[in-house]
């Protein structure tokens, strides 16, 4: 049986948010209500759902390092380190991974709302796969395991996520490049890829490019976790992700499995 890490510390999450508010100011920590949608952004979402004519990137750019969210000037409280260390990380199967979305830090408030809406669409798409854990958008930062934040200009990088862990608060970054023509109407696809990381999935090309990974299921160059753009969840992705979360042994291919409890 996989190791289970029940590490939720309610006071720790509350203290973290209080420290962030004292350092960055409450205004910079405001989040978007999960049930709010402005008419302008609603029209943008509807338009991009029906019109898919822009020329997109030919390759997906996903990073493992980034600066702080644009609305948080202090360097420490939300620092993130990614390193699998020959361990397979995933969430406990029947858990909710809750997320919030910062309202500030973007060039415009509409961009913040648009990005949050696209992340929620990607979350719903992954929930329909029924991998085990379930994503849920919440309005309060204190109830979130991770928060969507604008990371500014990171060159060709579109977004960056994290792997399952017990941090008080993780960050999923979206960058300036994701808002450019050819990318913005594929933002849901971008988040499909990033939420794959949040579920514990590595890049399809990881064995050749990154190392420190084991393979589960068949290779697929069009996997949602591949270089292919725009990313789409394939049938193999659905099957392999369900299989990944159905593993009951403590090890896979000689690597220990750690099951984390989302720190909502």
Write up what this structure looks like.
- It is a single chain.
- The chain has about 260 residues and is α/β, with parallel strands linked by helices.
- The chain has a single domain, classed as Collagenase (Catalytic Domain) (3-Layer(aba) Sandwich).
- It is about 30% helix and about 15% strand.
- It contains six helices and nine strands; from the N terminus they run E-H-H-E-E-H-E-E-E-E-H-H-H-E-E.
- It has a five-stranded mixed β-sheet with strand order 4-3-5-7-6, covered by helices on one side.
- Helix 2 (about 40-50) crosses helix 3 (about 110-130) and helix 3 (about 110-130) crosses helix 4 (about 185-200).
- The chain is globular and about 45 Å long.
- The model is unreliable at about 5-10, about 75-85 and about 205-210 (pLDDT under 50).
Task: Give short descriptive properties of this protein.
alpha/beta, five-stranded mixed sheet, four-stranded mixed sheet, 6 helices
Q: Helices, strands, pairings?
A:
Blueprint: E1 3-5, H1 10-24, H2 39-50, E2 88-91, E3 96-101, H3 109-129, E4 134-137, E5 146-150, E6 159-160, E7 170-174, H4 187-198, H5 206-209, H6 235-246, E8 251-252, E9 255-260
Parallel strand pairs: 1-9, 2-9, 3-4, 3-5, 5-7
Antiparallel strand pairs: 6-7, 8-9
Helix pairs in contact: 2-3, 3-4
